[in-house]
From TrEMBL, chain A:
WD repeat locations: 89-130, 179-220, 221-264, 265-306, 316-350, 351-383
Protein name, as recorded: Guanine nucleotide binding protein (G protein), beta 5a
Any matching Pfam family: WD40_Gbeta
Keywords associated with the record: Membrane, Repeat, Transducer, Transmembrane, Transmembrane helix, WD repeat
Known partners and oligomeric status: May interact with RGS9; this interaction stabilizes both proteins and increases RGS9 GTPase-activating protein (GAP) activity, hence accelerating the deactivation of D(2) dopamine receptor-mediated signaling.
UniProt-listed GO biological process terms: signal transduction
Species of the source: Amphiprion ocellaris (Clown anemonefish)
Automatic annotation (TrEMBL), chain B:
Record's protein name: Regulator of G protein signaling 6
SMART domains: DEP (SM00049), G_gamma (SM01224), GGL (SM00224), RGS (SM00315)
Residue ranges of domain DEP in the record: 13-88
GO molecular function terms noted in the UniProt entry: GTPase activator activity
Major place of residence: membrane
Membrane topology: Peripheral membrane protein
C-alpha cells in the first residue's frame, strides 16, 4: 500500500501529496486499530471460553451427590489374587511397543521398535508369522476380527494391512496394503467390527476412519490440540462411538458417523497414554503420565474415580478391564503392573516380572488372561 | 516432579534419613547413609506395605542416579549396611543433561591426572578413554588443557568436599556412560523430563524418537469460537446423578462377575493355568452351557452377540412369522461392515428386500422413519438406515425379546430340561400294555 502511495505522489500536485501522505498514516492507524480489536476480540473470546468451562464444571459437580467408592462399600471385597506369568514370549530383538489379541482367544500380534511384527500362538508360544516393516518404531498393531489379517504402523505415518496366509513360505510383505496416510507418526490403530474399516490415531493430532479395500478416508476427527496417543472403540454392537486420548490431556468421545466430538474430559495432569471402555460401554478408563488411572462415566459426564497411590510415581502406559469390569489392570513405566478394584478404588495387587517398562497391556477376548509387552523385548501372559 | 520431591524429602534434616560422616580406617567418609535407612524411610513416608515394593522403588531412583553406592559403579539399592550418597541437584536428570563425548573425555583425562588410587580408572573406563583418544586425536590438546584447568580448580577445594564432589561426578557419568554389562535396572525414563517414546542413551549417540509436542494453546479466534460452540452444547447435555450411575456400574459388574475368569474360576479350568484348552472347546461347541444361555437373558445385545443366541432368537421369530425384523437389523449391520465400493448397491438391495412397495420381507416402520430413510436413500451410504435400525431394535427389545425369554425354546435350554424322546415314550407305553395281560 505504501508503494502505491509513493507512485501517486509523483502524479499529483503538492496538496494531493499532503493528502496521500495523510492517507498512508491513516491506513497504518486503521491496521493498528483492527489489530487491537483482534487482540481484544481474542481476549474476549478467551474469557468467554474460560467462563463457559467453569460453568460446565459447576453443572457437572451439581449432580455429584456421592462418591463411587462410598456406594461400593456394600459390595463384597475381592479375595487375594494369585496372578503369575504363565507364558513368556521371546523373539523380539528390541522394545515391544504394542500388541493385540485375536478373536480366537489365543493368538496375538505384537510389534516392536526394530520394525518386526510377529504373530504368535500364545498358548503354545510358537511364532506363526513374522513381517519386517520398512520402518522402525512400529507403535501400533491390530488383529482383524476375522483373524485373517493384521494392521500395523508407526514412524512411517501409515497404517498397512497384511493378510495372513496359511502358507508359511509365502512372503507376507508382498501382499501388503497401505491403508491410512497421516502427516505424523501412527500411534494407534483398530479394526472396527469388520475387516473392512480401520480407525487410526496419529501424532498429527487427528483420528481417522479408513476403508481398507480402497484406502479411502471415510471420516476424520479433529479436536485434539496435540498428538493423539490412543483410542478405543465402544463395545456396543449398535454404537458408533469411540474415545481417544492425547498429549493435550484430553479424552474425547467421538461420533463415527458425523466426525463430531460428543463429549470431552480434561482432568488428567499429563499426557493420556491409554484409554479403554468399561465393558458396558457407559464408562471408560484412562492411564496417564501423571501416574494415575481415572474412570470417566459418560452418563454422569464427569470423572467418577481416580486410581492412584503415593508410592506410584511413574506414568501408566496402558490400561484394560477384566471381563466384568471389576478389575482394572495398569501397566506402568516402573516395570510393574498394578491391579485395581474399579468399584472400591483400592489396589488389589502389584505384579513384578518385567525388566523394563511395560508398554502395552490387553486382556484376552474371553477374559481368561491378559498379555503385557515390555521394553525388555518380551511379552508375558498373566492369569 | 514427583521423584525429585521424594529425593528432596529424603534428605531433609528432620524428616529424612540420617546422613552422617562415618569413621573408617584412617579416614572419614563424609555424608553417607545406609541402604537399610533408605528402604525403611521409603516404607514409612510413602505408606508402602510390601518391602519388595520399596526395594523396587529405591532401585528405580538409584538407576537414575539420584543416589549411588560410594564404592561401586553399579547403580542399584541394597537393603543392608552398604553406604550411599545423594547426588547433587546440579547433576539431576531434570536439568536435561545431554553430555557430549568431549565432556566425558575431559573427565576421564582429569581422572588420570589426579594420581590417587581411589580415582584409578576401571577397565571399561580405560577402554573408553583409549577409544576417545583415537576419536578426538586432533582435538586432544584442547581436551588435555581443559582437564588440567579443572584439576587446578579441584586442588583448591577442601578435602572432604572434594571427596563428595568427585563421587557425585563419577555417579553422574555412571548414569550417562554406564558400564556396558547389563544391569538389572536399566534407566527408566520418568514422566516429565523425557519425551513420550523414550530416549535410548547409547554410548555413541543419543537417539530420540519423535518428541511429543506440548499442548498448544489455541490462540486462533476460530478455535475459540469452535470451543465456545462446543461448550454451549455440552452445557445443555442431560446428566445422570452420581448415585444412580454408581448403582448402575455396581449392578453391571456384579451381574457379570460370575463370567469373569479373574474373579470366578472358569469350568473346567482356565486354559492358561492348567494348560488344558477344554474350556475353549466347550465354548465353541454347538451345545451352549446353562451359564451361557443365562447371559442371553441379560439384554437383547447379549443374545445377539452370541451366535448361538442369535440363531435361537431367529428361529423363535420365524416360528412367530416376525423374523423380518431381525433379518433387517442383521442386514444393516452387515451393510456397515462392507467395503465402501459395495455400500451403495447393498443399500439398494436392503430397500428392495425390506422396505419397498410389495417387499418380500416387509418391515413395519413408522411413517416418520420411513420418510427419513427414503430421503437418505437418495444418496445411499453406510448410515442410511440408522433411524430405521434403531426403531426396529427398540421394537424387538420391547416386544419379541421379552416373549422370547418366556418361550419354551429358551426356558428349556435355560433349565437344561432334557427333551424326552416322544417315540421312545410311546414304545415304552406299548410295551407295558403288552406285558400286563401275561400277568
Amino acid at each position: 500500500m505504501s508503494e502505491w502511495c509513493i507512485c501517486s505522489v509523483f502524479a499529483l500536485q503538492k496538496v494531493s501529496i499532503i493528502i496521500v501522505i495523510f492517507a498512508c498514516v491513516v491506513c497504518k492507524y486503521i491496521i493498528y486499530l483492527s489489530e487491537v480489536q483482534l487482540n481484544e476480540t481474542l481476549a474476549h473470546l478467551k474469557t468467554e471460553s474460560e467462563t463457559l468451562k467453569s460453568k460446565l464444571e459447576e453443572e457437572r459437580a451439581k449432580l455429584h451427590d456421592v462418591e463411587l467408592h462410598q456406594v461400593a462399600e456394600k459390595v463384597e471385597g475381592l479375595g487375594q489374587f494369585v496372578m503369575k506369568t504363565r507364558r513368556t514370549l521371546k523373539g523380539h530383538g528390541n522394545k515391544v511397543l504394542c500388541m493385540d489379541w485375536c478373536k480366537d482367544k489365543r493368538r496375538i500380534v505384537s510389534s516392536s521398535q526394530d520394525g518386526k511384527v510377529i504373530v504368535w500362538d500364545a498358548f503354545t508360544t510358537n511364532k506363526e508369522h513374522a513381517v519386517t516393516m520398512p520402518c522402525t518404531w512400529v507403535m501400533a498393531c491390530a488383529y482383524a476380527p476375522s483373524g485373517c489379517a493384521v494392521a500395523c504402523g508407526g514412524l512411517d505415518n501409515k497404517c498397512s494391512v497384511y493378510p495372513l496366509s496359511l502358507d508359511k513360505n509365502e512372503n507376507l510383505a508382498a501382499k501388503k496394503k497401505s491403508v491410512a496416510m497421516h502427516t505424523n507418526y501412527l500411534s494407534a490403530c483398530s479394526f472396527t467390527n469388520s475387516d473392512m474399516q480401520i480407525l487410526t490415531s496419529s501424532g498429527d493430532g487427528t483420528c481417522a476412519l479408513w476403508d481398507v479395500e480402497s484406502g479411502q478416508l471415510l471420516q476424520s476427527f479433529h479436536g485434539h490440540a496435540a498428538d493423539v496417543l490412543c483410542l478405543d472403540l465402544a463395545p456396543s454392537e449398535t454404537g458408533n462411538t469411540f474415545v481417544s486420548g492425547g498429549c493435550d490431556k484430553k479424552a474425547n468421545v467421538w461420533d463415527m458417523r458425523s466426525g463430531q466430538c460428543i463429549q470431552s474430559f480434561e482432568t488428567h495432569e499429563s499426557d493420556i497414554n491409554s484409554v479403554r471402555y468399561y465393558p458396558s460401554g457407559d464408562a471408560f478408563a484412562s492411564g496417564s503420565d501423571d501416574a494415575t488411572c481415572r474412570l470417566y462415566d459418560l452418563r454422569a459426564d464427569r470423572e467418577v474415580a481416580i486410581y492412584s497411590k503415593e508410592s506410584i510415581i511413574f506414568g501408566v502406559s496402558s490400561v484394560d478391564f477384566s471381563l466384568s469390569g471389576r478389575l482394572l489392570f495398569g501397566g506402568y513405566n516402573d516395570y510393574t503392573i498394578n491391579v485395581w478394584d474399579v468399584l472400591k478404588g483400592t489396589r488389589v495387587s502389584i505384579l513384578f516380572g518385567h525388566e523394563n517398562r511395560v508398554s502395552t497391556l490387553r486382556v484376552s477376548p474371553d477374559g481368561t488372561a491378559f498379555c503385557t509387552g515390555s521394553w525388555d523385548h518380551t511379552l508375558r501372559i498373566w492369569a | 516432579m514427583k521423584i525429585e520431591d521424594i529425593v528432596t524429602r529424603i534428605q531433609d534434616e528432620t524428616e529424612g534419613v540420617p546422613i552422617r560422616t562415618v569413621k573408617s580406617f584412617m579416614t572419614k567418609i563424609p555424608s553417607v547413609v545406609t541402604g537399610t535407612d533408605i528402604v525403611q524411610w521409603l516404607i514409612k513416608d510413602l505408606s508402602i506395605e510390601d518391602p519388595a515394593e520399596a526395594m523396587h522403588m529405591g532401585s528405580l531412583i538409584a538407576a537414575q542416579g539420584y543416589f549411588f553406592p560410594i564404592s561401586d559403579h553399579v547403580l542399584s539399592l541394597k537393603d543392608d549396611g552398604t553406604f550411599y550418597r545423594f547426588q547433587a541437584p546440579y547433576f539431576w536428570p531434570s536439568n536435561c543433561w545431554e553430555p557430549e563425548n568431549t565432556d566425558y573425555a575431559i573427565y576421564l583425562c582429569k581422572r588420570t591426572m589426579q594420581n590417587k588410587t581411589r580415582l584409578e580408572l576401571a577397565d571399561y573406563e580405560a577402554e573408553n578413554l583409549a577409544r576417545l583418544q583415537r576419536a578426538f586425536s586432533r582435538k586432544w590438546e584442547f581436551i588435555y588443557m581443559q582437564a588440567e584447568a579443572q584439576v587446578k580448580i579441584d586442588r583448591k577445594r577442601d578435602k572432604s568436599e572434594r571427596k563428595i564432589l568427585d563421587s557425585q561426578e563419577r555417579a553422574f557419568w555412571d548414569v550417562h556412560r554406564p558400564v556396558v554389562s547389563r544391569c538389572l535396572y536399566t534407566l527408566p525414563t520418568s514422566s516429565d523430563s523425557f519425551n513420550h517414546y523414550g530416549c535410548s542413551i547409547t554410548y555413541e549417540t543419543i537417539s530420540c524418537c519423535s518428541v511429543r509436542k506440548p499442548a498448544e494453546t489455541n490462540s486462533d479466534s476460530s478455535c475459540f469460537l469452535f470451543q465456545i460452540l462446543f461448550l454451549n452444547t455440552q452445557l445443555d447435555r442431560h446428566r445422570m446423578k452420581m448415585s444412580k450411575v454408581a448403582e448402575s456400574l455396581i449392578t453391571y459388574t456384579e451381574q457379570y462377575m460370575e463370567y469373569d475368569p479373574f474373579v470366578t474360576a472358569p469350568e473346567p479350568s482356565n486354559p492358561w493355568t492348567s494348560d488344558d484348552p477344554s474350556f475353549w472347546d466347550l465354548e465353541a461347541s454347538k451345545e451352549p452351557s446353562q451359564q451361557r444361555v443365562k447371559k442371553w437373558g441379560f439384554s437383547l445385545e447379549e443374545a445377539l452377540k452370541d451366535p448361538a443366541g442369535q440363531e435361537l432368537f431367529l428361529k423363535f421369530l420365524e416360528s412367530e412369522f416376525s423374523s423380518e425384523n431381525l433379518r433387517f437389523w442383521l442386514a444393516v449391520q452387515d451393510l456397515k461392515r462392507m467395503p465402501q465400493q459395495e455400500v451403495g448397491q447393498r443399500a439398494q438391495d436392503i430397500w428392495a428386500e425390506f422396505l419397498a412397495e410389495g417387499a418380500p420381507s416387509s418391515i413395519n416402520l413408522d411413517s416418520h422413519s420411513y420418510e427419513r430413510t427414503s430421503q437418505n436413500l437418495k444418496d445411499p451410504g453406510r448410515y442410511s438406515y440408522e433411524d430405521a435400525q434403531d426403531h426396529i431394535y427398540k421394537l424387538m427389545k420391547s416386544d419379541s425379546y421379552t416373549r422370547f425369554l418366556r418361550s419354551n425354546v429358551y426356558q428349556d435350554l435355560l433349565m437344561a430340561r432334557k427333551k424326552v424322546c416322544v417315540s421312545m415314550f410311546v414304545i415304552n407305553q406299548r410295551l407295558s400294555f403288552v406285558y400286563i395281560p401275561i400277568f
